[in-house]
Each structure stands twice: as C-alpha cells, then as structure tokens.
Design brief:
It is a single chain. It contains five helices and eleven strands. By secondary structure, the protein is of the alpha/beta class. The strands form two sheets. The chain has a nine-stranded mixed β-sheet, with helices on both faces. A two-stranded antiparallel ribbon has the order 5-8. Strand 10 and strand 11 form a beta hairpin. It is globular.
Length: 222
C-alpha cells in the first residue's frame, strides 16, 4: 500500500502517522507539505494527521481546510482513494465538506487525554474489516474540540447508511459527541474521520495495539 501524510504548520502527529505507516506497511509514507507539495501518483491512502494546524486559530481545521493541498485531497477522494483524518484531521475533513457535521468544544470545556474505550460499530467497511463488529477496543484520545455535532437529519442518515464506524463505549463519552459518535464515513465509504488516534496504538509500548486492525483493514482493501 502506497501512503502519504499531509503536513500543515502546527501539525504535531505527522511523525506518529509516519512511524505507524512505516511499521505496518514496510514503506515510508510521502510527507506532503500542504502548500507546495503534491500527493504522489498511485497513492492508496492519504492520512490527514492530528495536531493544531495553524494553531487552531478561527475554528479548528478551518484554515487548513482552505490550504492549496485540499484540491488534491478532494481529487484523490474523488478517484476512489482512501483518506483517513485523525483528530485535527477529522476537523479538517468536516471543514472541507469531505465529511458531514462539525467538531465543537468538548462539553466539559476541558482538554481530554487518556486511553478511550470504543465500540466498533460495523466491520463492513474498508477501515474496520479486520475488527469484529460490536467489539470493544481501546484507542488513545487527546483533544479539546472533539464533540461531534450534526443535525438530526444528518445523524439519522449516517445511522441509516451504516456510516458510523466507531462510537464511544456506553457511559464512556469523553466530549459530549452526538449519539456517542467517534468516527464517521463518507457516502462512498472511502473517507473516514475519527477523533481517537489509531496511529498511537500500533506498537504496544503506547499502551496497546488496537489500532493495528484499522491499518490492516486498509491494506486489505487497497
């Protein structure tokens, strides 16, 4: 699988993404600078990493969502390429319209950083096929604006179309996200955004390896 990681000013999880992809695919991803880089031809997966793009000025992800690289990202997704946005990357994908909804301030108004229990809502996606549907996993979180919001019609559509990939485990919602949603998919199922950090749960030394199956799912799909 050929991969790339988009790097914005203020990104601080791009190295985590790089190391996880290198470890699991055996190939270093292309590190694409947002302003003057290009997504290499033949790329299967583009990862939009977490961090604080542009210092989170305005809204989280709003400035990055207007970066020159976004046109290439949309073209990649339009061709059927896979896109994974994690944390700030999820925020960026909602700002670009590649995913519905928005990420707003945590209900507690506090930054949360901890291992987080998730429920794998469905194993029938390119991002989750190596998991067992309905199983519980633990993936780290670290965010202040992870409260997923969408209107009721959008939420119903996501539910009805099977586009909720992950939920926070019952009673474990860390941010007030609507319907405990932790990760959602695009209409074609090839773009996913999630607040938890699967790239920080691949080596075991971080506290677990429950993120490995996500990348194994993508490798199988690609």
């Amino acid at each position: 699988m050929k991969t790339a990681v988009i790097v914005f000013p203020g990104s601080n999880c791009d190295r985590d993404a790089h190391d996880a992809l290198l470890k699991l695919t055996g190939k270093a991803p292309a590190m694409v600078w947002h302003k003057d880089g290009e997504i290499p031809a033949g790329t299967d997966l583009v990862m939009v990493p977490g961090g604080f793009s542009y210092g989170d000025y305005l809204r989280c992800g709003a400035m990055a969502g207007n970066s020159p690289i976004i046109a290439q990202l949309k073209a990649h997704a339009g061709r059927g390429g896979y896109v994974l946005g994690v944390c700030n990357g999820f925020q960026i994908l909602t700002e670009t319209g590649l995913l519905p909804g928005a990420l707003v301030r945590n209900a507690s108004l506090h930054f949360v950083c901890r291992p987080q229990k998730l429920k794998v809502e469905s194993a029938n996606t390119a991002f989750t096929s190596a998991y067992t549907g309905g199983s519980e996993i633990v993936i780290p979180i670290a965010h202040a604006e992870g409260n997923y919001y969408a209107d009721a019609a959008t939420l119903d559509r996501l539910e009805g179309d099977g586009r909720v990939a992950f939920r926070y485990a019952a009673g474990e919602n860390p941010n007030g996200a609507a319907r405990d949603i932790a990760g959602v998919l695009s209409e074609n199922g090839r773009v996913m955004g999630m607040m938890p950090h699967p790239e920080r749960a691949v080596g075991g030394h971080e506290g677990g390896r429950d993120g490995v199956a996500l990348f194994e799912s993508l490798m199988a799909a690609a």
